[in-house]
Amino acid sequence: MVFFRIINDTILHQNVKKLGIPKEQFISPYPSNFDGFIFLTRCCFSIGDWGIISGLPYALKQLYPNCKVFLPNTDWIHKIIYPAFAPGEASHWEKAWENSDLVFKNNPYIDGYVDNWYTEVYHDHFRVYDSNNPKITLTQQMCKFHHIPYDKCTDLIPKLYFDQDEEIKGNLYLSKFPGEFNFLHLSDRYTEKDNNILLSYIKEMGIEKTPFMIYYKGDINQTPFNQLNIINNINDIIDPRVQFYVKSKAKNVIGVQTGATDVISGLTQVHSLHHSTNLEDTWAVGNFIPTIKYINRKDYE
Questions:
Q1: Is 0.85 surpassed by the pTM of this model?
Q2: 29 pLDDT exceeds 80?
Q3: From 174's CA, which of 133, 152, 153, 221 has a CA 20 to 30 Å away?
């Protein structure tokens, strides 16, 4: 792994075995009355990468009411951070550097966006982890670096703030499909085994006959999910934030863990099948979200 330090808009690289600092070795670089800083929330780019720490501005404001929380604007991300990654490694999104806006738009705890910063940027590599507890979230690990004890970080879940226009568009779309529904988020990267596990899980929940909306770019009839009562595919919604809003109104959102579902896990019940072989491996890198109901692969072996 590569640890980044960003000073005076310049990236310094250092190879490390694991990102972060063990809690027993941590010494904070500044006093507890610190009242202002910028944090580059991630050195990676997907919706989920940004989404899982979207509660961090709120948490920081609780401990430091007078602090000013800034994010880099998308131009800065594109200019400073994005070139550090080989093409194709940053994200499968076409303009990955814009994903921060999809997550933090309308966030009331952000004081501003900047296009330069001439001191240390305390980003997501500055984390303090507990080797004995994989359920310490990345938000908690980053807060610990900023003097907030794990148990004092009060907003551990992703947060989205929709504006009136997004709500109007989402509600107009939903008006075509009245009534309660569940949601299935699918990607063409899912394996046949993934699909079979998800279908088995849906049947165990006893909801296979209920109305389902889906997100899928392929032909759902060519998958095992053709057994479900599918009422609509939201792939026709162009604006990702309106997609998020529509999904947030589902009773349950089910799929392999991905940013497009992680980001709404503070708004509705998300059920996620982990990518890693072991569920604990997903949590160990800071990707644990307390509100998600995780589908353990081992239960389906």
A1: yes
A2: no
A3: 221
State yes or no: pLDDT of 189 exceeds 80.
Answer: no
Structure tokens at 172: 């107009």
d(CA 155, CA 10): 31
- Residue 185 buriedness (CB in 10 A; 0-12 / 13-18 / 19+): buried
Which pLDDT value is given to residue 35? 59
Please tell me the least confidently modeled range out of 1-15, 101-115, 184-198. Answer: 1-15
Domains of the chain: 2-152 (no CATH), 164-300 (3.40.50.2000)
